[in-house]
User: Fold this.
Amino acid sequence: MRPMQSTRRDRRTGFHSGFAKPINYHCFSLVPRPLDGYPPVHVKKQIPIIKDSKGGGESKSNQIHLISRRRFFIIGGGAALGAIAALNKASASLIVNKDRPHWRFCQKCYVMFYNGDTEKGSCAAGGAHAAQGYEFFLPFDVPGTPTAQTNWRQCEYCLAMFFNGYQEKGHCPAIKVVRAGIPSFGAHKADDSFRYVLPLDVPGTATAQTNWRYCVKCHAMFFDGYKKKGSCAAGGAHAAQGYNFVLPHDNR
Ligand SMILES: [Zn+2]
Ligand SMILES: [Zn+2]
Ligand SMILES: [Zn+2]
Assistant:
């Protein structure tokens, strides 16, 4: 079970407090506009991120976070663009990320879980989740559309992506409860940091994987592309229902 007192992850940015701050203040002096009013109250929607110019993950020297290589917004308009052009290669471009990294497939239970913390959550197959394959970059804080569903959240306890749009919050493998002498699992609890909006019913691409589904039993997002359907906190294997989600990932 994930300890409740473990709040080392910054709830505003979602980044680990013991890890890098996602902001390289040194670069702000070269890009005047984004400093205005920082930090704004609604900073969650406008998190300035420095893109790693090497494109190979988190830079150890600068301790910055690589965000989506696929989709980002440069803030500050023309002034910022000019300033960015003036930066040398060791510096980085200033972006506002709208996709959050570190989401992975768990090869044990098949759910999508957040792999950016030291702790790896609780897996319905036992122990902690174990990442395999692509790193997914999941959109958040954008409007829902006919091809993008809101109400997807990270579970604070098990770190899985689950659908928070129902009153019932599914089954969480991190919360064990005993009712009338019978042990069972409690419900997921939404982490309030990021409100994910996940693409659905669109064609898959080289950087967007199909076959991600909502499990009607545990309410988690799981990969339905294999013959086996993983381990469900509600017992047995996951059971798909509803949309076919198409989730963006890196191209490795
Ligand atoms: Zn797992
Ligand atoms: Zn959970
Ligand atoms: Zn399930």
